[in-house]
Structures are given as structure tokens and as C-alpha cells.
Amino acid sequence: MPKPYEISAEEAAVKIRTQELTAEEYVASVFNRITQIEKRINAFITLTKQTALQTARQIDEKIRKGEKLGCLAGIPIAVKDNICTRGVRTTCSSRMLKDFVPPYDATVIEKLINQDAVIIGKTNMDEFAMGTTTETSYFGATHNPWNLKKVPGGSSGGSAAAVTAEETPLALGSDTGGSVRCPASYCSTVGLKPTYGLVSRYGLISYANSLEQIGPLARNVYDCALLLSVISGHDARDSTSVNMPPSDYTAFLKNDVKGLKIGVPQEFLGEGVEDAVRKAVWDAVNLLETLGAEYEEVTVPTMRHALPAYYIVAMSEASSNLARYDGLRYGFRVKKDDGDWSTIYAEDRRAGFGTEVRRRIILGTYALSAGYYDEYYLKALRVRTLIRRDFEKALKKCDVLVGPTMPILPFNLGEKIDDPLALYMCDVLTVPANLTGYPAASIPCGFKNGLPIGLQIIGKPFDEGTILRVAYTFERNTDFHKRRPIL
Amino acid sequence: MKQNRKTHICREEVEHVAWLAHIKLTEEEKNLFTEQFSRILDYFKKIDEADTDGVPPTYHVLDLVNIFREDKSGKSLPKKEVLKNAPRQEDGFFKSPRIV
Question: Is the CA virtual torsion A456, A457, A461, A463 positive or negative?
Fold first, then answer.
């Protein structure tokens, strides 16, 4: 018999509904697991054990009374700490917000509560989601459950590590340049960045607003599709939310890829991609072909400009979005009120923000400043148009594009943290989906020396269904998702 | 040729931009950032190789423009809740440092 914390959200939802397992037992089991291993992982910043158990008991009561239940009744979920939760501190892993308690819930949190999900805590991340390793957190780095010396990926590293270490079946992350897919790849979980506009960003603390989306993480494709169905949908409070009818993404999960056309962009398998990663991806493509898909090599030539264009846009938007941290309405304040306001302001922002956040705000300010605006920011936005055109063209011929999520295997904690440019380079294969707004997922597709490899699947706008169908078929015919780290 | 030019940002420029961004830097950080920014900006200049003549910029990937709502006031949060996170407050107001 598997322990309750080991089972998937899909299975647990049925067991709870049929009273084979109580929500309280499931949630308590998850917290026992957290108590056992969390010291070694550091996936969470805040745990909400008492309220979670109380919510679980209320759900059990509803079941006993035969009341109507949400589709996530009694299912634990961990939430990235840049998504506002009413009454539960939301820090963005920053000293600036270390005591910030939001007076409201993000739209995705309202949706989870409406479906009777149980929020168990807030997960560790790179400060303000700026990073690829979860090392820039004010609360210390998260460790990769597959090898505690390695990075878990980032910036949603706490969410992915918690899912793979069975501290929760489900988690929410956010993806600005790969922040859901990168840790999904490095921790061997399923993670999806939805099409820009599919999921409301209301209550997501902004980093780069034209690029980011909240996305689901889970241990299998079904659970990921289930969570996506809950969090997606139009929201009048986010003016970039697209008005579309709600969709049940689990309905797309067929073990069948016959007739689908899979594009393999050659730029995704070029220089800088490790051999083990390249091999795992080709094995995956060959398997999908055996299962009835057609594949074709395609080309997206402007890919080589994607990374610099992404960083210019992201840093520029960051410098504007993070201007709100003045230590007045919320945030960190070191100085008393003596001295002039600009000195106080500059000292609060120096003490409240970590090095990488300061670096990005200042570089973004530079790229937007008079004399450099055209050269950097505007040029990057024109390049963004070219990249969009390239991907649009490639996806005219193909249903999905596949490639690696990350060019290299998980590396050692501390290995790259002093070299910002080397860290930025790790995002080279994930940023195109953010620049174009296209949906993309990462699923487990192999291991090398005990370290996970992720397959990235990029789809057409609002065609998450086809991505999930390909992911599901691959998962039904492989065992990578069944492996668990030894902890 | 333009794209072969090395980007150099000097220490004074880093100081100036940090001031614009209202972030104080230590002497050590000024040196570190000056060195790092030159390398990063040099890498960013790679986009100069892309021919963007006549290509419009993409500020946003959606075709949505000007989403309007009725000009009616909605429910607000209680004042107490809103002030709860303010480091300094007085008589129901946020307290800011002296501006003028």
C-alpha cells in the first residue's frame, strides 16, 4: 500500500470522495512527509499546517453531509511565494517583502479555494523570480531532491522540489523566462507555462508583466491538466486576461499521437547542448514517431537573438515594476525619517533588494534611459517580432515543437552564482515561449548519472490541449515519471 | 563597424543609473557592477546583428487594446487592512519622509 502522500491528485480525489481516505488523513500525511525531509530540501518559506488541517476537516464534513464538492476537494497544493494569499505572508523570497501579509487573494487562489483545494504553504523561489537556480532567495537556496548538492532549477525551485519530493502532489509556479519549466526539468516533474493571457495574473507580484504566466506543476500529466483547468479562465481584474470559454484539459488526454506532426528545431539541439540531453531528446522523438507521430526538422533562425532580447525586455519591465517598492505602503524600511527622501529611498532599496534584483533593476533602467532606449529596448522589441514570426512559421507546418528544456544537466549549488551571464545562458531554450507568448511544457524524458532531463513541448497559442496529449502519450509509454528521488 | 564595438560602461555611468533607479551602491558593488555590466551589455549588443529595418516592435503578444470597464466604483478594502503593511503610519495615513 502506498502511503497517502505518495499518491497522485487524481487518485486521491477519488479516494476522498468515496471516503476511502479522509482529506485530513491525506493532508496530515503530507505534513508528516514535510517534517521528515524539509530540512534537507528547503522547499518552503511558510507552512500553513493548522489552517490546512482545519480546511481538510471542513471538507471531510462536507463529504459526510453529502454537499457539493469542488474537483480538488481535499487535495494539498503548494503555492509559489510571489502569488498573494490573504492573511499568509507573501515574501517573493525578498527581504523587501519578508513581513508582507496580503489583504487579498490572487485570482488563482480564489479559484483553488472554490474547488476545495487545501493550501499547505508558500514555496521558495529566486528573489522576485529573478534566477535559474533558487539560490538568490533571502531564505536560502532550495536543494535538488535528486542530489542535494545540485540546484533544483528556478525560479520556481521550491514548487518543483516539493512536488518531486512528495511534499505535495500539486504546486503553482510562475514562468517569466522558464521559471516553471526549468525546475520541472531539473526536478523531473511535469510543468506547464500557459499561453500568455490564459491564466489571470491578478495577485501575482509583477516582475516582467508582458512575459509572465502562472503555471501548474505536478508528478504526472493528468494532475497538471487538472490544475490547469482550475486556474485558467477570464478575469476582469487582469486586463491582459483573454475572454475564452473554460476548458477541461483532462479531456485532451489520449494515449495517441497518430497523425500529429512534431517539429524539431535544429537550433534547440545545437552548440551548448550536452550530449546526454541531446540523446534523451532524440530518443523521445523516436519513441513518438514509433507511436505514430510524424516528425520533421525545422528551423527558427532568429533563436540566436532570443536570449539577449529576452533579458533586455525582462530587465526593462522589472525596473518599472519594482519602482513601487518605496517602503511606504508596504516593504522594508531601514532608516528613520531624518534626511532627504531620495537618500532614505535609495538606502531602503539597497538593503531590501538582493544583488541580482539590484543588478536587473539598474540594467533595466539603463536600457530604458534616454540615449539607450532605441539601441536596447526598442531594438529588442523589434527582434521579438522576428522571433514570433519564426515560431509562427514553424508551427504552421507542425502541431508542436519539441526540444530540450535545459541545455545542460543540473549543476552544483554555488557553481555559477558569481557569474550572472553564465546563469542567463541557461535560459536560452525556455525564453522563446515567453517572448512569443506561446504555451510550453516540460516533462521527464530521461536521467544521466541520477540527474533528470526534461523534454520541452511548445504549442500553438491556446492549444495547451495538444501539448498535453503529446505529453500524456509519452508518459503512458515511458517510466521516467514513476522514478522518485531517494530521500 | 558598429557591431564589433566593445560596449564599455564606466563607473560614473553605473553610479548615475543606480541613482536614477534609487538604489544606493557600495564602493565594492560599483566596481563589480561596472565590470559585469560591460560584459552583459556586450552580450546584449548581439541583437544588432538582426536586421530589423521596417519591423514593428512587439510590446505585447496579445491583440487586446484598451480594455474598458464601467466607470463605477467597486468595493474597497478596509482602511485598517490596507495600512497594516505600512512600516510607518500616522492618524490613518501612510507616513512618508519629508519631500519638500
Answer: negative
Q: Could you tell me if B65 lies within 8 Å of chain A, comparing CB atoms? A: no
User: How does residue A334 score in pLDDT terms, banded at 50, 70 and 90?
Assistant: confident
Nearest chain A Cα distance for residue B77, angstroms = 8
Whether A416 sits among the annotated catalytic residues: the reply is: no
Separation of alpha carbons A35 and A487, rounded Å: 13
The answer to whether residue A371 neighbours chain B at the CB level (below 8 Å) is no
Q: Which of the four pLDDT bands, split at 50, 70 and 90, describes residue B2?
A: very low
Ordered structural domains, chain A, with CATH:
4-257+445-454+463-482 (3.90.1300.10)
For residue B65, pLDDT beyond 80? no
Instruction: Judge contact between B57 and A378, C-beta under 8 A.
Output: yes
Domains of chain B: 1-51 (1.10.20.60)
Q: How far apart are CA A276 and CA A281, in angstroms?
A: 9
With beta carbons under 8 A apart, name residues in chain B contacting A319. 21
- Report the residue from B23, B44, B58 with minimal CB separation from A381: B58
* Residue A381 touches chain B, beta carbons under 8 Å: yes
Question: Partners of B58 in the beta sheet?
Answer: none
Kindly list the residues from chain B whose CB atom is less than 8 angstroms away from the CB atom of residue A330. Answer: 85-87
pLDDT of amino acid A66: 96
**Could you tell me if A11 lies within 8 Å of chain B, comparing CB atoms?**
no
Q: Average pLDDT for residues A343-354, to the nearest whole number?
A: 93
